[in-house]
Amino acid sequence: MSSEELHAIQLLGRVPYGRLATSMRALPILTVARHIVTDGRVVLRMHGGLGYHDACDGAVVAYGADNHNAATSAGSSDLWSVQFTGPAQIIEPTCAQRELFGPAPVDVNGEPFAPAYLRLDPHFVTVHTLGFHATPQIRQRSVI
Fold first, then answer.
1. Which of 7, 29, 32, 137 has the fewest other C-beta atoms within 10 Å?
2. Pfam family example for this protein (predicted)?
3. Distance between CA atoms of residues 144 and 140, nearest Å
4. pTM metric for this prediction
């Protein structure tokens, strides 16, 4: 693995959720997924009731995550995002992998959560960072 890929994997481990992008019936879809990293691959848990996992099986997908919400709420000044692109495959995770995911949601859109798992084999990895090295100035306006 390249240093950029290792850095992306390390960053991905800092947040639990990301967004999966693919197409379904010729239309783009973007959905939230929980992820873990194992053996250099990204394993995703998502709700199976929507059928998105079927659309991803055997297809090239993109998966991205970032710290935008965490950084702004924690006061951190550096923002980052990572994107992994490659083929996805439906898998049955091991017991150890299931434990790494932690508790599952109770429901999705009012329906009981039905887990579906995908393994993403990243062929392309991108890391973007935004560094803010100075405290932003706050401008005050006079009210007349």
1. 137
2. Pyridox_ox_2
3. 13
4. 0.84
